């Protein structure tokens, strides 16, 4: 893929991959600083990519603000910033092997259809968990506007047993072997592209970019740990390597709630306006 070139040798490569849907807050700052510091300590590469496939919520103004905040923090990144929305057609084309393997089906269900079809919310699953309403539909029946979902049970049946990933983050450190029954009941048939072919899922774009850019270590917040099996499954189906994962602790507010983009009170811009230094930010996030 154009833009960020994979390294010639297999050196340590990590990335910070924000979605430009709001200001950078302390939690993002921690994630970016940690990934950057780990890359520099290993003599490796630190990449930045904008996960802006949600074109309705992503804004160039946020992207500019995020890059400005990162530079202010003192971070330098290797190569140009990769913007996912510039590569939608390439991501969509990469779904072809999954179509050929009979693993994708079109789906016209809305979120409310999905909620209505569920007897009760599924504890610990990716919400809203998809009950499989359109699983019987052949790919040829795709209408403009239909999403494409992966038939996860069929996909796992095509993969060898024992696939998994290595994790170095403190909360889940160790080797994780996927349990197919658990993946099917907790993850289900996730969407890989929606709105015709205009929007590709984060799972897909992120797995492809990590592989194409030679990412050896995915360093990100613990809130994404539960999504990792989806990416590992896609890596195996698409013949991509599986990086090492490092899910770090989340920065929480005074009430113990994790910070979200809407928590403007914790926006880096606010600390900057109040005269904080990059060292103050490092201290605030415990680095
Ligand atoms: N774009 C995601 C976010 O902003 C991060 C995804 C990742 O690091 O894999 O939370």
The termini sit apart by: 34 Å
Structure summary, number of beta strands: 11
**The CATH homology group name of the largest domain:** HUPs
Shape: globular
Relative strand content: 15-25%
Please give the share of residues in helix. 25-40%
The topology string of helices and strands comes to EHEHEHHEHEHEEHEEHEHEHH
Largest sheet: 4 strands, antiparallel
Question: Main sheet: which strands, in order across?
Answer: 4-5-8-9
Which spans have pLDDT < 50 for at least 5 consecutive residues? Answer: none
Total domain count: 2
Keywords:
287 residues; alpha/beta; Rossmann fold; 2 domains; 4-stranded antiparallel sheet; 3-stranded parallel sheet; 11 helices; 11 strands; 15% strand; binds glutamic acid
What does this 3D model show about the protein?
The protein contains 11 helices and 11 strands. It is α/β, with parallel strands linked by helices. The protein folds into 2 domains: 1-85 and 252-287, 3-Layer(aba) Sandwich (Rossmann fold); 94-246, Rossmann fold (3-Layer(aba) Sandwich), CATH 3.40.50.620. Strands 4-5-8-9 form a 4-stranded antiparallel sheet. The protein has a 3-stranded parallel sheet with strand order 1-2-3. The longest helix has 16 residues, at 26-41. The two termini are 34 Å apart. The chain binds glutamic acid. Glutamic acid binds next to loops.
Q: Secondary structure elements and their pairing?
A:
Layout (H helix, E strand, L loop, with lengths): L12 E4 L9 H16 L3 E6 L9 H13 L9 E2 L4 H6 L2 H5 L3 E4 L3 H7 L29 E4 L1 H6 L6 E4 L6 E4 L2 H7 L4 E4 L4 E2 L1 H11 L4 E5 L6 H10 L6 E5 L19 H6 L4 H7 L3
Helix pairs in contact: 8-9
The site of glutamic acid has 7 residues, from loops.
């Amino acid at each position: 893929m154009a833009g960020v070139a994979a390294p010639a040798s297999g050196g340590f490569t990590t990335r910070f991959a924000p979605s430009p849907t709001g200001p950078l807050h302390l939690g993002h700052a921690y994630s970016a600083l940690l990934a950057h510091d780990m890359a520099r300590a290993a003599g490796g590469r630190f990449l930045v990519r904008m996960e802006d496939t949600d074109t309705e919520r992503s804004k160039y103004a946020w992207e500019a603000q995020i890059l400005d905040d990162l530079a202010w923090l003192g971070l330098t990144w290797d190569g140009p910033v990769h913007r996912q929305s510039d590569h939608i057609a390439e991501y969509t084309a990469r779904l072809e092997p999954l179509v050929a393997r009979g693993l994708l089906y079109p789906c016209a269900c809305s979120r409310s259809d999905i909620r209505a079809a569920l007897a009760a919310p599924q504890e610990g699953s990716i919400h809203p968990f998809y009950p499989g309403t359109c699983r019987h539909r052949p790919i040829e029946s795709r209408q403009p506007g239909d999403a494409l979902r992966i038939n996860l049970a069929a996909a796992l049946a095509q993969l060898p047993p024992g696939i998994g990933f290595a994790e170095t983050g403190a909360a889940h450190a160790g080797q994780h072997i996927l349990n197919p029954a658990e993946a099917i009941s907790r993850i289900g048939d996730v969407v890989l592209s929606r709105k015709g072919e205009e929007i590709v899922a984060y799972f897909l774009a992120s797995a492809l970019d990590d592989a194409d850019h030679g990412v050896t270590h995915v360093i990100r917040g613990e809130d994404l740990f539960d999504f990792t099996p989806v990416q590992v499954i896609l890596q195996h189906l698409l013949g991509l390597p599986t990086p090492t994962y490092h899910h770090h602790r989340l920065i929480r507010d005074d009430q113990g709630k994790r910070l979200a983009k809407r928590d403007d009170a914790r926006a880096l811009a606010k600390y900057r306006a109040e005269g904080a230094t990059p060292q103050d930010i490092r201290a605030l996030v415990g680095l």
